[in-house]
Amino acid sequence: MGSKLQHVRLGIALALVAAGPAAAAPGYTITELKPLHGNMSYTRDVNLAGQATGVMTDESASTFAYRGFFYSPKGGVVDIGSLGGRNTFAVALNDAGLVTGWSQTASGAAHAFVFTPGVGMRDLGPSGRRSFGNDIGASGNVIGGVLPGDHAFVWSSSAGMRNVGAGNMAAFNFQGDVFGDRRGSSIVPGMWQPPYSTFVPFGPAPTSFAGAEVSGGNLFRHAAGTFLGRGSGRDAAFYWDGHSYRNLTPAGMRAASAGSLNDADNVVVNASDTRGAGLPFLFRLPSSPPVTGASLNPTGSAFSSLLEFSSIDDVGDIGGNGRVGGEIHGFVLTPSFVTQLDTVRSILHGGIPPASPFLSYVDRILGPMTTADITSCFELRELRGSLSVSRGVPFTAPQRQVSANALQAVVSRNACPEGLPAVPVTVPHVFARKGEREQVTVRVARSVTIRADVPLGARFDVVGIREKGRTPKLKRTRTKTSVTVKVTRLKPGMLRFAVVARKLLTTKGTPVITTVA
To answer: Which of 123, 169, 353, 365 has the greatest number of C-beta atoms within 10 Å?
Structure first.
């Protein structure tokens, strides 16, 4: 489930720009998605499971065709089939691997579909009309458009397809809001919220443009899209922060469009230079300088150039297409472990007041990590578990769930080992009630210092320190924001202790960082 480009329709000649091994490079690896029976493939969307979907050409028969594909790290690229006709365009997938787009029926009509790996394709209808799936949400609901009439629809497995009136529904966010536009004398960007009966426009586009199309939105109800040039004017990429627009056309480019954004406010933009050549860019934040696609292409990559970025997910995977010899192939760019963590950290930073102790809580865990070893993976799992606390925390419920999903993806995709952490280790925990105890077991080789850092106004203690068969020697000190216990007379082995809440913050949710060093 991600933010997408506008839907494509039957008869449009795609400038498509097939699965191979990843090439190593600082920062990113790249996976080539080779077409099965043709010269072109284009990645339209990526998800947290490392899966992707898109379109490839099939030139194996006398009649040229476009085919939708589904890619998974274990299964490679597979053709997802059709609704009985020749062409299929896969456009979007969610984190469960469900795919939507449109496919020709036996009569040649275009119908929206849902494809389930291992099951097949479901025709969403309606009979006698054309429909196009644009995005699929976390729950499996689909949005798209119906012709004639150019009306938007919302489809669910329980209620079927529901016409929601004029407009273009382009993309879901995590909580089910829909981003798109309405068209009249101008093209007005905005969003719908469930039950999708009312369209809420964003602020008006700058008067120098004819309107704006939205390509995606995120859990903070931020959006990205394209200002449409008026007359002979050029298009420009934009970011909407809920109050105002920011032009994201990179310096020196004559035109640009925004392809996608994620919940960390990373935005991928496609621009053309003064000669008309297409160039992709990544904005790690809308306010940061853009990173060129060329700088993300790893050394040793099969791609001589990256041509377009179509999508970006919540750990920073980027889908798109590039040039391989004389052909155009899709790819998935996978960021380093550190960049994945930085992406999750940006999600957790969203909307949090600068003075909140939860900012330093997140940064203390995610900031120093560089490798996925037993200790850092333990810390990531503890951080993910702490996001289950809701009362008194500044994170919204969608923000906590999206971040937890992203952290789980980091753990799974980096083959995070399990086991007892070794010293030094940092243990994050959010306490929700007075008297709550967090039990900790670590591997030690010698004397250690246990320190629990707490927000001003809260009070905690470190208790129950024990080593099997021995009584350690303890020296305890306390300040207004910490309690420290020096533990000596230890042998190599396991050390157990507990952090207990004596007094919480008035909001109840209290973040505590415990270090053992």
So the answer is: 169
